[in-house]
Write a structure and sequence with these properties.
This protein has a 5-stranded antiparallel sheet with strand order 6-5-7-12-13. The protein has a 3-stranded antiparallel sheet with strand order 1-3-4. By secondary structure, it is α+β, with helices and mostly antiparallel strands. Helix 1 runs antiparallel to helix 2. It starts with 6 loop residues before the first helix and ends with a strand. The protein has helices at about 5-30, 35-50, 125-140, 150-160, and strands spanning about 75, 80, 95-105, 110-115, 175, 180-185, 205, 210, 220, 225-230, 235, 240-245, 250. The protein is built from 4 helices and 13 strands. Pfam families: Peptidase_M24 (PF00557). Belongs to the peptidase M24A family. Methionine aminopeptidase type 1 subfamily. One of its GO terms (molecular function) is aminopeptidase activity. Keywords: Aminopeptidase, Hydrolase, Metal-binding, Protease.
């Protein structure tokens, strides 16, 4: 089921999205060489707590997960694509980190992700992260009334494939609202002109995921959550919660 939000509801989601953006900003500022991933999770928890928000990630357990998720952020490092569990791992110089964060405020959810380098960035990582953001921008630009889900998917996939990157199949964006995952699914590759017609009031989490080595293959780590590239290449993830409006796409997860 796809819920059409009122303008008042979208404004409420904007406040949840603002908390997500503030948490991601704080985590990025804290992510220095030697910092543990668990410490980044604590930084995000503090932002949510100060805002009076809760986490849709903490305790989340979909049918495929062996255990509830134990943190308020996903921290995916280097060859981890998404869903990385914060551990005692200390960040090293040149690590590529993707951080995904959600917040629930007054019953509404925001969801976003960013990828960045710690310390001295590698040129290939910079290009990978930049391409993830470019793919996100392309998907957002296609998120207008009258277009279809396939137009978003096609725009994202074209940017990723043109750069020679892989796309993990079966994972992508989704609707968001009162819960973190709602209909519709938003693939990261597809055919233009296909799928559900976009309408004013729909809210989507658009989230390209790129595999640097060019292959699409991935596997689940021993923790049952972290998805890693099979070829050991690095990965990037970018995401915003976006409202479809007659005035154009409205980004809800910005400061």
């Amino acid at each position: 089921m796809v819920e059409i939000k009122t303008d008042t509801s979208v404004n409420a989601m904007r406040e949840a999205g603002r908390v997500v953006a503030e948490a991601l900003t704080a985590v990025r500022e804290a992510a220095r060489v030697g910092v543990r991933l668990r410490e980044l999770d604590e930084v995000a928890r503090a932002v949510l707590r100060e805002a009076g928000a809760s986490s849709p990630f903490l305790g989340y357990r979909p049918s495929w997960a062996p255990t509830p998720f134990p943190a308020v952020v996903c921290t995916s490092v280097n060859d981890a694509i998404v869903h990385g569990v914060p551990t005692d791992y200390r960040l090293g110089d040149g690590d590529l980190v993707s951080v995904d964060c959600g917040a629930t405020l007054d019953g509404w959810v925001g969801d976003a992700a960013v990828t960045f380098s710690v310390g001295t960035p590698r040129p290939d990582d910079v290009h990978l992260a930049d391409t993830a953001r470019a793919a996100l921008d392309a998907g957002i630009a296609a998120a207008v009334p009258g277009n279809r889900i396939g137009d978003i998917a096609h725009a994202i996939g074209r940017v990723c494939r043109s750069a020679g990157y892989g796309i993990p199949q079966g994972f992508g964006g989704h609707g968001v609202g009162r819960s973190m995952h709602e209909g519709p699914d938003v693939p990261n590759e597809g055919r233009a002109g296909r799928g559900l017609v976009l309408r004013h009031g729909m809210v989507l989490a658009i989230e390209p995921m790129l595999i640097g080595g060019g292959r699409d293959a991935f596997y689940a780590d021993a923790d049952g959550w972290t998805l890693r590239t099979c070829d050991g290449s690095r990965a990037a993830h970018a995401e915003h919660t976006v409202a479809i409006t007659d005035a154009g796409p409205r980004l809800l997860t910005v400061v």
